[in-house]
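Exercise: predict the fold of this chain.
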Amino acid sequence: MRRLVLSEEAIYGLILVTGMIVVSNTLTGASLNALITVVVTVVVFFAAHVYAGTISHLSTNRGHGDLRLSLTAAIQHSIGMLAASVIPIVILLLGVSHVVDDEIAIWAALIVDTVLLGVLGWFAVARWSPHFWVRITSALITAAFGGIIALLKALVHH
């Protein structure tokens, strides 16, 4: 479970989700459009990542690779991308189901993505270093990826 959440794929997945929310929102501003854009994009990127991982693993075995083993390894390596997108998708679903306003759902998903990126950055480095300043620097850098994209949304819409 730890590998799933603290992975490059999880971080990349959150950055991807943040970007897709911004792009979808510039088109119409509806949480349904953001949700569809995010889900389709994450699934396609996950499938592409799994495919690339599978053929890469097979190619390193010089014709002696096991397709099932390669596919399983690629899925396990890439699953963080899907897992990381669950929380923002649930937030967007709140907008789609009119529990909250569309704009609130979209901004909440962007903010939560940025916070999650910071948390992932903190804990990923915490496994490597016990020093507070190293951890906080990592958290801030990782969160900045989402923050910069969210800032672009603010600049584009105002």
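Check your answer against the key: The chain has six helices and no strands.
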